[in-house]
Design the sequence.
């Protein structure tokens, strides 16, 4: 006979016929609760293959870890029926309503685990939930994979692509994102094959390569060659952030060149003063405080080469302030001429970059795309990597990227379904 206690727990687990709780047992130390569930046999089951009627074959004892009950570890036990189809002879285990097939955890436990892993390192979540981290990774992988299967890229016409390191050394992942700041694909590496894999993913999820009109990326040769092959009709915009990053490197090269010259001439105090000014020279002038602007002015007035390169940096930034492509092109041509005429060696790389990618830089006036989208996503990824202190397996980082930034993995706390 089922007591009120068992009926209470049957309701708490949201069970309905033929499932019912038959026993609840607490250990002597009051640290663990074990709940026994059974089915009363009052149901018919049909083969998932041929839809024929099935009959009981035998039972297999199973155990699932459930969410803690009053801070006590809770486990569900059930002798689960295996059925045999009368028609095709297939033998299979029936599904239980409180857990996914093949899982050792209940749906509620998994849901809480996923929400914890969204906000804290997996190892810390494992300690809180009293289970091993590798088991939580399996839960998270299955959840994210299930959500990503429903991804629909049929309406995608533009995307952003960037790389980020997944661990020390030359180990990178490439991230593709849409204009809504959602990650749509993550893959290992940063060469042309990453673009090929993205096209395969795009077409698998309803998108078409010929529908892609605009792409924003950095100037990596792998991305360039991959896009040329896989998306030949797309207009490529080279991100202004990366262009200015190369220009800032030129400013720093000129500073270091001047620093070396001062040291060689025995002007050690001036060299020391210049050495500590790297970051204020690289920041945008309008973001400097009054004191910092004064220090920058003194440097530019005292060191002619740095002053010229710094002025060219500010002038290059003005390219994106024009209202149309024609005026911006004229400005960029004038900038190239002025920078070339200086003869300064620190400008060699940025001159080559702007000259070789002149049209792609100006394509911003057609697409309006900037990798600021990717920088926002990267800040989330860096926070995730910082909490985990690195990822040994890049696929775990991919899973976390999808969880946090795909837009398909919303909070899922829910009771076990009937």
Sequence:
């Amino acid at each position: 006979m089922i007591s009120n206690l068992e009926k209470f727990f049957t309701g708490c687990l949201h069970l309905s016929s033929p499932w019912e709780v038959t026993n609840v047992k607490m250990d002597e130390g009051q640290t663990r609760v074990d709940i026994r569930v059974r089915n009363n046999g009052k149901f018919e089951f049909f083969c998932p293959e041929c839809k024929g009627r099935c009959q009981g074959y035998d039972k297999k004892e199973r155990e699932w870890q459930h969410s803690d009950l009053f801070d006590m570890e809770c486990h569900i036990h059930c002798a689960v029926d295996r059925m045999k189809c009368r028609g095709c002879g297939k033998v299979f285990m029936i599904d239980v309503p409180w857990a996914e097939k093949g899982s050792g955890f209940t749906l509620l436990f998994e849901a809480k685990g996923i929400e914890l892993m969204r906000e804290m390192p997996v190892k810390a979540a494992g300690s809180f939930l009293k289970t091993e981290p590798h088991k939580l990774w399996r839960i998270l992988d299955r959840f994210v994979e299930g959500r990503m299967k429903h991804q629909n890229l049929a309406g995608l016409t533009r995307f952003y692509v960037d790389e980020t390191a997944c661990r020390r050394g030359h180990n990178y992942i490439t991230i593709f994102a849409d204009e809504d700041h959602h990650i749509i694909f993550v893959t290992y590496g940063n060469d042309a094959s990453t673009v090929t894999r993205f096209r395969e993913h795009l077409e698998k999820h309803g998108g078409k390569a010929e529908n892609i009109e605009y792409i924003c990326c950095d100037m990596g040769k792998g991305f360039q060659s991959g896009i040329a092959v896989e998306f030949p009709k797309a207009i490529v915009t080279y991100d202004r952030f990366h262009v200015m990053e190369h220009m800032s490197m030129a400013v720093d090269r000129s500073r270091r060149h001047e620093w070396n010259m001062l040291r060689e001439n025995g002007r050690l105090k001036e060299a020391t003063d210049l050495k500590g000014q790297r970051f204020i020279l690289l920041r945008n002038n309008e973001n400097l405080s009054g004191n910092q602007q004064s220090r920058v002015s003194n440097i530019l007035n005292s060191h002619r080469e740095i002053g010229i390169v710094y002025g060219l940096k500010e002038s290059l930034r003005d390219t994106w302030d024009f209202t149309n492509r024609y005026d911006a092109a004229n400005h960029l041509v004038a900038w190239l001429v002025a920078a070339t005429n200086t003869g300064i060696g620190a400008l060699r790389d940025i001159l080559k970059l702007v000259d070789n990618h002149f049209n792609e830089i100006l394509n911003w006036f057609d697409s309006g795309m900037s990798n600021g989208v990717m920088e926002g996503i990267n800040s989330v990824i860096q926070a995730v990597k910082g909490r985990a202190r690195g990822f040994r397996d890049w696929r775990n980082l991919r899973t976390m990227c999808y969880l946090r930034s795909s837009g398909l993995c919303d909070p899922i706390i829910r009771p076990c379904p009937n």
Notes: The chain has four domains: 1-103, 105-150, 158-239+370-399, 242-367.
